[in-house]
Write a structure and sequence with these properties.
Topoisomerase I, domain 3, single chain, globular, 34% helix, 4-stranded antiparallel beta sheet, 5 domains, alpha+beta, Rossmann fold
Length: 692
């Protein structure tokens, strides 16, 4: 007969934990949060120390009744929500609702859902940590006060349904600031000169460096001509050869933000998708055999690169067995600590390095396997010896002009045998140079002067934006994914070719925020507020005092904004299309899934239709329709015939307007990560590089 009730957030987590605890325990799920501030009102009593008014979340009544009934039938109740502020708050809310004695040790926390970790955690229950609860309460109330004070202003002055959030507003401001940088950017001309040289029988490239040992930049064609003039009929002689041995260390194991960034680079995952799949891996997957359902990774919301001694020793054992003694670290590698990190949990790692991706791939979905492999390889590499590279730098002189060539090759792969961190620019390791000696005269094959222009800073991808938010101390690991989802859902920014661009609505909202609530948009202010929340968690600050210090000035700004903020008329952008139902002009509207066309005669006429983007290619199947760009339910671009459903032609690859020269079938643009874009035939083996 069960005498102990354990409450977790999700059924998957309950199933995994229940298997480890045995028949004396009943494990039930709260299905996430159970109480929150009411949606219909502010829900905060400013006159009585920001006292929150919590109510049961709609739809959770039956869940809570079931938990209360189960609690009456047992001697003991343990609260085992996730090991973070949010989890602590869920545990506290459950204790309040169920009338549990919070003077008793009710709280059980664990960083991984494995048999040993669960059994050990239940040997050491603790009291609910009210510092953690108060830090979460302060964040929730702070966000509610900002949102429910500013949003109604925007409803009156701009448009119904808008919202303003503390972290989301700063995020939109970053995107808009980057767009302004791009628009104000003035490109500058510069030139490079490449020399194709031969040593022995192997060719290599050296680039113009300057005159003698002085580095010189070339800004005009005239300067390039002067260099080329000096090089006429001059021998290319090796002046200096520098060889070095360089060590390269692996990247640290994943934290939440670095996992989101690397999953975007290597797996093309959106931030929300990465966190959803990581949650599944954490809560437990049935991997068959005696293990059954088991948590495959440690807790995925963390800002620490710390790894337990147990995990380090297990990795050491695996590396020794699989790769040999030379790949084993002589002592644990010290990881640099982010000054903003709370360091509450370990890094994200596999719960057992012996549970390799290949061994359990049959039990995982394709995306689960890809993410697990990424986490597993990153962790294993972080516990391996450094790579050793031979690097070589060569200075070559011709007529007083210096060219420089650099290269490297792997002398000992170390961690690189398992994993190499991705980069945003896709740069690869240089190739090694041929044998070259000082005083050697090289054969010149070709000189290539090239004109370039400096480029504006790139728009933010999800990965770049997450990295920036982390570096600036804005938000915390658990906030990144929902923040990026919210700013898109509200129509403040849009994703174009996987990069964020602000919308007109986003720019209007931020301009109003800049005028009336500049502190909310101030990066340093927002980062300082995150620091205050950390101090509440550490017991250094009182949560009511933190809120009071913020609210006094903020309330005055709200009063000024109510008086002085002018109404903004948002006019719909007219299209060239006419409504086929009533004859009025159709206008562009922004919906949840992006732009669409709607009749300007709304509400009398409710005609809407998607925006059709033709690519100038006839349908190869019906030969009468036009190929148009479309979007799937998951916003992935594909191409189909505009005669659908009569013609069902579809293609994930973009068709191009000329036939294959070999077999006359359709050519398409194929995007590959490493090779870039190439043109391939859909019928034969014809292939060519696409124009850049």
């Amino acid at each position: 007969m069960a005498d102990t009730l354990v409450i977790v957030e999700s059924p998957a987590k309950a199933k995994t934990i229940g298997k480890y605890l045995g028949s004396k325990y009943i494990v039930k799920a709260s299905m996430g949060h159970v109480r929150d501030l009411p949606k219909s009102q502010m829900g905060v009593d400013f006159k009585h120390g920001f006292e929150p008014k919590y109510i049961t979340i709609r739809g959770k009544g039956d869940v809570l009744k079931g938990l209360k009934d189960a609690a009456k039938k047992v001697k003991k109740v343990y609260l085992a929500a996730d090991p973070d502020r949010e989890g602590e708050a869920i545990a506290w809310h459950l204790a309040q609702y169920l009338g549990l004695d919070t003077n008793q040790p009710l709280r059980v926390v664990f960083n991984e859902i494995t048999k040993d970790a669960i059994k050990e955690a239940f040997k050491h229950p603790r009291h609910i940590n009210m510092n953690l609860v108060n830090a979460q309460q302060a964040r929730r109330i702070l966000d509610r006060v900002v949102g429910y004070s500013i949003s109604p202003l925007f409803w009156k002055k701009v448009r119904k349904g808008l919202s303003a959030g503390r972290v989301q507003s700063v995020t939109v401001k970053l995107i808009i600031d980057r767009e302004r940088e791009i628009q104000q950017f003035e490109p500058e001309e510069y030139w490079t000169i490449s020399s194709q040289l031969v040593s022995g029988k192997k060719g290599f490239e050296a680039k113009f460096y300057g005159y003698g040992e002085e580095k010189v930049e070339l800004h005009s064609e005239e300067e390039v001509k002067q260099v080329l003039e000096r090089l006429k009929d001059q021998p290319f002689v090796v002046q200096k050869v520098t060889k070095r041995e360089r060590k390269r260390n692996p990247a640290a194991p994943f934290i939440t933000s670095s996992l989101q960034q690397e999953a975007a680079r290597k797996l093309n995952f959106r931030t929300a998708k990465t966190m959803r799949i990581a949650q599944e891996l954490y809560e437990g997957i049935d991997v068959g055999g005696k293990d059954g359902a088991v948590g495959l990774i440690t807790y995925m919301r963390t800002d620490s690169t710390r790894v337990s001694a147990t995990a380090q020793n297990e990795a050491k054992e695996y590396i020794l067995e699989k790769y040999g003694a030379e790949y084993v670290l002589s002592e644990p590698r010290a990881q640099a600590k982010n000054e903003n990190a709370q360091d509450a949990h370990e890094a994200i790692r596999p719960t057992s390095v012996f549970r390799t991706p290949d061994e359990i791939k049959q039990y995982l979905s394709r995306d689960q396997l890809r993410l697990y492999r990424l986490i597993w390889e990153r962790f294993l590499a972080s516990q391996m010896s450094s790579a050793v590279l031979d690097t070589m730098s060569v200075d070559i002189e011709a007529g007083g002009v210096t060219f420089r060539a650099t290269g490297s090759k792997v002398k000992f792969p170390g961690f690189m045998k398992v994993y190499i961190e991705g980069s945003d620019d896709g740069s690869e390791e240089e190739s090694f140079l041929p044998p070259i000696e000082e005083g050697q005269t090289l054969e010149l094959v070709e000189l290539q002067p090239n004109q370039h222009f400096t480029q504006p800073p790139p728009r933010y991808t999800e990965a770049r934006l997450v990295k920036t938010l982390e570096e600036k101390g804005i938000g915390r690991p658990s906030t990144y994914a929902p923040t990026l989802e919210t700013v898109q859902k509200r129509g403040y920014v849009a994703l174009e070719e996987k990069r964020f661009v602000p919308t007109e609505l986003g720019e209007i909202i931020i301009s109003l925020m800049e005028e009336f609530f500049p502190e909310i948009l101030d990066v340093e202010f927002t980062a300082h507020m995150e620091s205050d929340l950390d101090h509440i968690e550490d017991g250094i600050r009182n949560w009511v005092e933190v809120l009071d210090a913020f609210y006094d000035d903020f309330a005055k700004r709200v009063e000024v904004a109510e008086e002085e903020m002018k109404e903004v008329e948002l006019k719909d952008e007219e299209s060239d299309e006419v409504c086929e139902l009533c004859g009025k002009v159709m206008v562009y509207k922004l919906g949840r899934f992006g732009k669409f066309l709607a009749c300007s005669g709304f509400p009398e006429c409710r005609n809407t239709k998607p925006i059709v983007k033709e690519i100038g290619v006839k349908c190869p199947q019906c030969e009468t329709g036009e190929i148009i760009e479309r979007k799937s339910k998951k916003s992935r671009i594909f191409y189909g015939c505009n005669q659908y459903p009569e013609c069902e032609f579809v293609s994930w690859d973009k068709p191009i307007a000329r036939p294959c020269p070999k077999c006359s079938h359709m050519l398409v643009e194929k995007k590959r990560k490493k090779q870039g874009v190439s043109v391939v035939c859909t019928s034969c083996d014809y292939q060519e590089e696409a124009d850049s």
